[in-house]
TrEMBL record:
Signal peptide residues on this chain, from the entry's feature table: 1-20
Keyword terms of this UniProt record: Signal
Domain of life: Bacteria
Name of the protein: Lipoprotein
Organism: Candidatus Moduliflexus flocculans
């Protein structure tokens, strides 16, 4: 009887570990295009860097993401990529609120040396102000190359930029 209980417990733990692994993995989405497939496998041109931003959460409204003013709307399971001259551009996310006063902005400087590929995502967390009031805060966060590439592979391209100009936009993803 003890062996049966022990086997059941081991199987339960293995099952929970498998579920936990699934919860943290990106899920592949549709709407892939030839441009999307190309953007997933870019290498920076000489003297340039690539900056990818991906957003994994769906929400009722789009947020705006920009790199030195080159802006695109984005929603869940999407990514954008900028090919830029090497430097330290500013990445900014604007998260709309119910009113203009509730709109949140997150900014960070991106260290983008020539030949580099950077991956960023938006993190959110609740700041408790009281037992009944919680404020959502947002932070742009870098992510490692292998994890970033995995997310980009699973998501769909919304916009691609080269030197500040949008060269591709998949508006159908936002409908």
């Amino acid at each position: 009887m003890k062996t049966s209980s022990m086997n059941t417990m081991i199987m339960l733990v293995i099952g929970l570990m498998a579920l936990a692994g699934c919860a943290s993995s990106p899920k592949a989405v549709g709407s892939y295009t030839a441009e999307d497939n190309e953007a997933k496998n870019l290498t920076p041109a000489e003297g340039k860097a690539l900056v990818y931003f991906f957003y994994g959460r769906s929400s009722s409204s789009n947020l705006d993401i920009s790199l030195d003013g080159a802006k695109t709307p984005i929603n869940g399971q999407m990514y954008a990529v900028w090919e830029i001259p090497a430097g330290t551009p500013t990445l900014e996310a604007i998260v709309p609120g119910a009113t203009e006063f509730e709109t949140k902005t997150a900014k960070t400087s991106v260290d983008a040396p020539a030949g580099s590929i950077q991956y960023y995502r938006l993190l959110s967390y609740a700041k408790e102000e009281s037992a009944t009031v919680k404020e959502m805060l947002y932070q742009l966060s870098p992510i490692g190359h292998s994890d970033g590439k995995e997310y980009v592979q699973a998501f769909a391209l919304i916009s691609r930029f080269r030197d500040g100009e949008r060269i591709y936009y998949n508006e159908a993803l936002l409908q």
